[in-house]
Amino acid sequence: MTLLDAVVVGSGPNGLAAAVTLARAGLGVRVLEAQPTIGGGARTLPVPELDDDLLFDLCSAVHPMAWASPFFRAFDLRAHGVELVAPEVAYAQPLGGDRAGLAWRDLGRTADGLGADGDAWRDLIGPLAEDWRQMTALALGDKRTVRGMLEGVRGHGGYASETWGAAASLARPGLRFGTAVLEQGGPRWDRRFLTEEARALLTGVAAHAITPLPSYAGAGTALLLAALAHADGGWAVPVGGSQAITDALVRDLEAHGGVVETGRQVDDWRDLPSARAVLLDTTPRTALEILGDRVSAPRRAALGKFRYGNAAAKVDFVLSGPVPWAADDVGRASTVHVGGARAEMVIAEDAVAHGTHPDRPMVLLSDPAVADPGRARGTRRPLWTYAHVPSGSTQDVTEAVTRQIERFAPGFRDVVVGARCIPADQMERHNQNYPGGDISAGAATMWQMVARPSLAPDPYQLAEGVYLCSASTPPGPGVHGMGGWHAARRALLREFDVRHVPGLAPD
Ligand SMILES: Cc1cc2nc3c(=O)[nH]c(=O)nc-3n(C[C@H](O)[C@H](O)[C@H](O)COP(=O)(O)OP(=O)(O)OC[C@H]3O[C@@H](n4cnc5c(N)ncnc54)[C@H](O)[C@@H]3O)c2cc1C
């Protein structure tokens, strides 16, 4: 039997980021993917039951972190042939009638549109947007080591790049970010803004965390994503859909000798070819099933306590034209948070946290053709939405989502040509990393954003030669490849004595 250098289980963005990093260090890498298609949460596929020509993003659709993440900055998606396009309005929050909060790419224009809250928005988000490199370094670091944070500021120079100067450069942005999280994640969150436009605009982004609001995890998510809206790449979508990111990673992997095998479910250690290193782009639960008593008893106990969160139920629509938003300029945004006013979103998220389906659920919507007109075919276009629901929900939420959108876009029903729901309990069929429909692969509580998947000093290494690299590790959910990058770099150092992190830019 040939001994492989490394096997990666799972071809999500983290699995592929790990595989690319290892292959570029000259190792023989094989990726085993259970599904028939590659990419996990970054796949764009036809849905024949809906339309013969259109392509739909199965999971992720909008990618502020794909250009901002230190891994992807080093990899250079553009140079790898991925065109990222950002809409003029990063995200919008319709409030009924002609009212809406709008986050334009341009911070000044956003502030102008927020009237009485313009200065307050500029004061809160402006400095964070200016320091977006430091912000992403902190938010997407390994949450354990100084050097795991520094790579984000200093690029991809390797472990030797650790310097106190770089660490000091994180101090001020870190303090600013931390103070803002405490303010917007706590009971004083209403004090800064006077208008519903500004309050709701930030709350819509906080809701990405699927937690009761306000929460520190929600505030951290909101402030990072809101800052990135005004930074270099905005809330970008890849031309052609999220699959473009996956395809670029796979091309690079194959160019460096790696292979991906689909239809390879791994349930047991015996399903794995023998290899010097195994990296699991899976949940901790799956990892424990595969590894059995290869993981020490204390570590098993700690990982057994990892909590999975509430869920999303997906609804894909085919439309015969753009969404007829009532408020001006909402249609210039690819991403629209359809939840109404701050108080309504608080009620909706609270209901989900208590295990019930809200009448007016929090809906996230992406209309990719706004930024990438090539996604439409003639007048037909795909519309990507999901609603927050309790974990394991079996409900088809098509009608609830339609009703929510119709509130802010009267006539929406008239442009709907077809729709299909993937209820939360079915999400696992497409990707077992989302138990019960938890699209964050682990509840986004403040504790679990830091101590993910447990408080172990090394969150990635589970046993000798075995690493967890999925969104259940730091920094958590999103298409940024950072969990894979952090884990692969540890594996390189410990299993192969490779001290210099390989460059990732195109050869
Ligand atoms: C509906 C939805 C919308 C989202 N929207 C966004 C968004 O707009 N922007 C954004 O940045 N993020 C978004 N996300 C989150 C993002 O997709 C994930 O955080 C990201 O894909 C996580 O990457 P990963 O590599 O850790 O795991 P995943 O992408 O989940 O991939 C894991 C892979 O491992 C495979 N696998 C798991 N277990 C096994 C096994 N035992 N054997 C073999 N293979 C296995 C799975 O089949 C899967 O392909 C969304 C997610 C969902 C579900």
TrEMBL record:
<protein>
    <submittedName>
        <fullName>Phytoene dehydrogenase-like protein</fullName>
    </submittedName>
</protein>
<dbReference type="Pfam" id="PF13450">
    <property type="entry name" value="NAD_binding_8"/>
</dbReference>
<dbReference type="InterPro" id="IPR036188">
    <property type="entry name" value="FAD/NAD-bd_sf"/>
</dbReference>
